[in-house]
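AbgT family transporter
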Amino acid sequence: MEKTTAKKKSWILRFLDKIEVAGNKLPHPMTIFFYLCILVVAVSGIGSLMGWSATGEMYNSATGAVEETTVNIVNLFSFSGLRYMLTSAVSNFTSYAPLGFTLVIMLGIGVAEHSGWLNGLIRKVVEITPAFLVTPMVVFIGVMTNIAENAGYVVFIPLAAMIFRAYKKHPLAGVAAGFAGVSGGFSANLIIGSTDTILSGFSDAAAKTLDPTYSVTPLSNWYFMIVSTFVITAIGTFVTEKIVIPRLGPYKENGDGTLVEPSGEMTAKENRALKVANWVFLAIVALYVISCIPQNSFMRNAETGSLIENSTLLNSIIPLFTLLFFVPALVYGKICGVFKNDKDVVGAFSKSIASVSGFVAMAFVAAQFTNYFTYTNIGRILSFKGAELLQRMNIHPIGLMVCFVLLTGFINLFMASASAKYAIFAPVFVPMFMGMGLSPEITQVAYRIGDSTMNIIAPVLAWIPYILTIMRKYDKDSGWGTLVSCMVPYSFAFLIGWVALLVIWMVLNLPLGPGAPVFYGM
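Predicted structure tokens:
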């Protein structure tokens, strides 16, 4: 990848360059995941011989109770382990969430791209949106997409690259900014989402083991997360504009350091097609909204009526997004003459899937690694041991919360699932910190900060192969080193900024949400 050389680079940019060079000297990501599989198998064998295990309090979702649980390492370096690996290989692959999400959404996004609608839409957006707003807009929307859970990864990050390219910015900077918002700012939002519901459930159960009258609600972190949304947007914008874009330099799409310009003005037919397709897009959005309004709507949870917790809306968000992009694209393609018959549409489907064929191959090995790491209990044992370490430390409450953020971030490098980690952490830390005068709500906030900020550099994050595939679309030489060198500045900037906000919040003793104090018993 080309970089600017007009003036001497700062030590930060030189350091990131070295990370990229070293990282890209590593084997292909698919090979790296294969080696990681071998490493997990070897570690599980060694751990089994040495009798590795860990004991701690853990929330049992089946019984709804907090129970002391002993976790033993599961040996894959054995005949039974070999049998498991062989018999589970196909199911590991087919149940790998990013695979299904990506293939389904590409039926919509891919057709939208090949029809020309997406390109026309972005060109119109570029005409009316000032260039200085594009980066904060991308980071902010990325943060907000976590309300739709995984849709941000499969829908928005590719769009972020296209938007940056249209604004004559490096598309890899768009991938980085979008990824930073979607994943690094995962917990922040202006709206209460499923993450708030899931984590507050764990916190509530853990708090009741010490104080049966205490209640933690999904709104318990709302005020803090509203402010966090704007803090993350500001930090993400600064890192993108001051570090990532200057470091990446100009995007040499046509070989001379400039972007390929769109081919002329849009024709009258294209403008008419764009207008009709956009109205169709808005009509579908309106239909979704109207469908959600009735209390007995099929879009809601059939038992509770919730639009967030286990609702049809969120459980079917990927096919809903696919239709949202596919139908307007079909209309645009028909009016413009791109799609003359069904064969043209099917051809667009085929091209869409072909564009992610590299990801499909990589996903097979990544799925095995993710499953092996969970199956062997290595991540759980690390979590329990980390909890034991923190329990033995005698630190001031603010320092304790900072240490808890760092511990959560470290464990997140090995165990990416926010709910799985918190199922282990909440029963241990929530009552322990309550005994030290810290509320369950502040413990939950600290956990969310550590979990979110390390997502974008966690090798076990299931979406890493997909992000690498998007990057290779714009830079065939990009690899793991390119991704890490782009995301490290965001990760540490988010960590420092978010921890600073946490410290300020604790010093000022501000409510974290409605009826959610920082300190317990005050």
